[in-house]
Amino acid sequence: MLMFQGISSCVELKTDAEFSPTKALLELQKRARELFLALSKRIGILKDFLGKLVSDWSKFCLKDKYRKKRVSSLSMLKSIGINP
Asked: Do the beta carbons of residue 39 and residue 46 sit within 8 Å?
């Protein structure tokens, strides 16, 4: 979990986009074998893998905008004036 948190904190998002940890964790699970192979190789290979993973997360692991029933935590914090 600490490794996941550390990697996910590197994701840069466009404005008004929210990161979906659930989607990101599922993507990391799909790539677990690739991650462990990169861990056993040179540091450059691991760096390349993590860079591509973070880049893919910032594009494909976003929360869906169709949720209308419940306000997201990020939206609630922004509405009361807290900018995380």
From this structure: yes
> What is the identity of the amino acid at 18?
E
- What pLDDT was estimated at residue 83? 67
Say what the pLDDT of residue 67 is.
57
The CA distance from 36 to 3, in Å, is 13
In DSSP terms, which residues pair with 19 in a beta bridge?
Answer: 62
**Average confidence (pLDDT) over 43-64:** 82
69: three-class secondary structure by DSSP: coil
The answer to whether residues 53 and 31 touch, using CB atoms and an 8 Å cutoff, is yes
DSSP 80: T
The residue whose two tokens read 């900018």 is: 83
Burial (CB < 10 A; 0-12, 13-18, 19+), residue 53, is buried
